[in-house]
């Protein structure tokens, strides 16, 4: 296969223009003519570099996912006191990212909302991102649970698995919501899911059965 000589500045301008277009209109409705115009290049150059619209979308989404995963490392620098705080801080962090990088967040939300109609390669990349997010959550929660005053008769690993199960349930509910509401593009439109996660974590920490000893 013939090697393509790439002008890095033009390549970056194309990806930035594609990010804006895909974040605003989604994969199906994004217009490569508009991307070319915003990037200040010919449409032919876009297809010369990327071959087809699907590849351009894949590269754009991959870049966004890699960037957001890298940004997630900041969550490890904070000291947490309980599980509810993890949910609160994570939600605040996502909203902060949306303020600083709105197109990144809007593109990712739109990608999940339209996941069923996207190319298989993108679906696989999104699944990978979800798996990596769960791994980050596992590492965070393990460190926090190690510091909590857990009852001696309860194994910490069991607590970790239980909490991860709740996180996974919230993720499932999020994806179901996005599938049912493909018009959603902002984190604040899913705020109720974060509030639900706080409730779940609060119940896990305090328990849900009445203390019979205290009632007597």
Automatic annotation (TrEMBL):
Residues annotated to bind DNA = 31-50
PANTHER family per UniProt: HTH-TYPE TRANSCRIPTIONAL REPRESSOR SCO4008, TRANSCRIPTIONAL REPRESSOR
Determine the domain of life of the protein's source: Bacteria
Keyword list (alphabetical) reads: DNA-binding
What InterPro entries is this protein classified in? Homeodomain-like_sf (IPR009057), HTH-type_TetR-like_transc_reg (IPR050109), HTH_TetR (IPR001647), Tet_transcr_reg_TetR-rel_C_sf (IPR036271)
Q: Name one GO biological process term.
A: regulation of DNA-templated transcription
Tell me which residues make up the HTH tetR-type domain. 8-68
* Molecular function as annotated in GO: DNA binding
Name of the molecule in the record: HTH tetR-type domain-containing protein
């Amino acid at each position: 296969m013939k090697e393509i000589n790439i002008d890095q500045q033009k390549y970056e301008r194309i990806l930035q223009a594609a990010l804006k277009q895909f974040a605003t209109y989604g994969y199906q409705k994004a217009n490569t003519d508009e991307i070319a115009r915003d990037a200040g290049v010919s449409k032919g150059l876009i297809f010369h570099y990327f071959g087809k619209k699907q590849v351009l979308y894949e590269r754009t989404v991959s870049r966004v996912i890699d960037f957001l995963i890298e940004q997630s490392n900041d969550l490890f620098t904070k000291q947490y006191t309980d599980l509810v705080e993890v949910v609160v801080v994570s939600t605040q962090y996502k909203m902060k990212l949306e303020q600083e990088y709105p197109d990144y967040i809007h593109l990712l939300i739109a990608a999940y909302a339209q996941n069923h109609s996207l190319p298989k390669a993108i679906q696989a990349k999104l699944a990978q991102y979800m798996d990596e997010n769960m791994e980050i959550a596992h590492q965070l929660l393990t460190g926090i649970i190690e510091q909590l005053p857990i009852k001696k008769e309860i194994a910490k690993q069991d607590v970790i698995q239980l909490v991860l199960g709740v996180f996974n349930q919230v993720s499932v509910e999020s994806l179901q919501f996005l599938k049912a509401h493909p018009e959603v593009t902002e984190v604040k439109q899913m705020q109720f899911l974060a509030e639900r996660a706080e409730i779940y974590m609060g119940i896990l920490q305090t328990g849900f059965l009445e203390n019979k000893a205290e009632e007597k």
